Amino acid sequence: MSVPLRLSRGQAKARTRNRLLAAAAEVFAEQGFAGASVDEIASRAGHTVGALYSHFTGKDELFLTLFDEHAAHRLDGVEEIASQWEEDQTVFVALGEYLAEIADQHTVWSTLEMEFLRYALTRPELLDRLAARWWAPRTAVARLVAPHCAAHDPVAVSTAIIGLFEGLVTQRRVDRAAVPSELFAEALRWLTAGLAHSSGPAAANTPQPPRPACRETGRKRTRRTS
Amino acid sequence: MSVPLRLSRGQAKARTRNRLLAAAAEVFAEQGFAGASVDEIASRAGHTVGALYSHFTGKDELFLTLFDEHAAHRLDGVEEIASQWEEDQTVFVALGEYLAEIADQHTVWSTLEMEFLRYALTRPELLDRLAARWWAPRTAVARLVAPHCAAHDPVAVSTAIIGLFEGLVTQRRVDRAAVPSELFAEALRWLTAGLAHSSGPAAANTPQPPRPACRETGRKRTRRTS
């Protein structure tokens, strides 16, 4: 055990917060999002449930804060690779490898994300918070790809790239042979080559500005729910 | 009540099977995959649990059979639209609208799929069955796009298209404004324009033949599981 240091009030607060987040990450990884309890997270962090609630509104916010950390971490990696965007071929290979690595290594996290999404889908307030969160990586990728978007809306391109990545990750988790790691790079290459060689959006397709937490409120009623 | 008809043994068997599937679809929609019980499904169908088990190995197989029905139904729609592939622009608009419609209307089903996938991820035997199932839509889309793939592997292109679609659906469910329905068509256009204007795969990227139920068995150990 290290000798306890005298911490300022701010330092002590930050330490408690970090301990709670680290404990939440552990408990989520072990028990899933649904299975984790705030009691267990607080006790794992060496704090009371009261202390937990003085830092976070609950399990949802602990998860969303961890989400921010993961998103920032992933994006650092993407930005580092994209900074060499000039040498096209190499960049795609490097980016594809990085994405395949995320697909293969962050399996616990992606399972948690899936559970959380499932849980948020029936909770409109939480879904709004998740939607706001998803704008950060979307606008960051849009900024990266903007110089390569020709006449197309960078936010739309970013949304497609993220969609492509997430959709390939899901398929690769179910069936690794179906999604060779090179496919991440190949598919990105097709998409970006297509941007250069296709005309701009039709008039009806006005680019959506990045408006955090701004979902369409009046969702159309579904005709079928099968 | 209709007057009971005298059914052949085969007809009676088929009717029981269909009733069980219809009941399963209802109970899954109401209670989710995790919440549904075989008792409830059997009783809703007007049969015993024993009868259920004489037709299906359990809840998993009921879900997988419903999955097949949904996949076949979706694919019929895609094939109908793709049969007019010649008139490029119109086809993409029609295909995009169809995909956006699936995204918006099949919300109960896509939530069930998400739950089932989450459940299957920790059950290798079930994951293999799901992986085998996913090859059917993949090879069907590959067949459709093959004439438009230039030097690229149609199965890889199909995998990317399905990934793109699924990734956009997920984002649209969280944030409809972030994924305008036109984006499905736009992104498909970029991808297919890119196929025509990019070179074939690198030598290392040998096309994967469609091998149902043939996942790589020796999965690499993950370095991190964060």
Describe this structure in words.
2 copies of one chain form a homodimer. Chain A is mainly α and 226 residues long. Chain A has helices spanning 9-35, 38-44, 49-55, 59-82, 88-105, 107-120, 124-145, 154-174, 182-197. Chain A has 2 domains: 11-56, Arc Repressor Mutant, subunit A, CATH 1.10.10; 63-197, Tetracycline Repressor, domain 2, CATH 1.10.357. Chain A has 9 helices and no strands. In chain A, helix 5 (88-105) packs across helix 9 (182-197). The radius of gyration of chain A is 20 Å and the shape is elongated. Mean pLDDT of chain A is 84; it is low at 202-226. Chains A and B meet through helix 6, helix 7, helix 8 and helix 9 of A and helix 6, helix 7, helix 8 and helix 9 of B.
CATH topology annotation of the largest domain in chain A: Tetracycline Repressor, domain 2
| Beta-strand content of chain A | under 5%
The residue ranges of chain A in which pLDDT falls below 50 over 5 or more consecutive positions are 202-226
Oligomer: homodimer
The coarse overall form of chain A would be elongated
How much is the radius of gyration of chain A in Å? 20 Å
- Give the terminus-to-terminus CA distance of chain A: 57 Å
- Which H/E pattern describes the elements of chain A? HHHHHHHHH
Instruction: State the CATH class of the largest domain in chain A.
Output: Mainly Alpha
Number of domains of chain A: 2
Average pLDDT of chain A: 84
The profile of the biggest β sheet of chain A is: none
Biggest chain pair contact, residues each? A-B, 74 and 74 residues
Give the beta-strand count of chain A. Answer: 0
Given helix and strand content, the structural type of chain A is mainly alpha
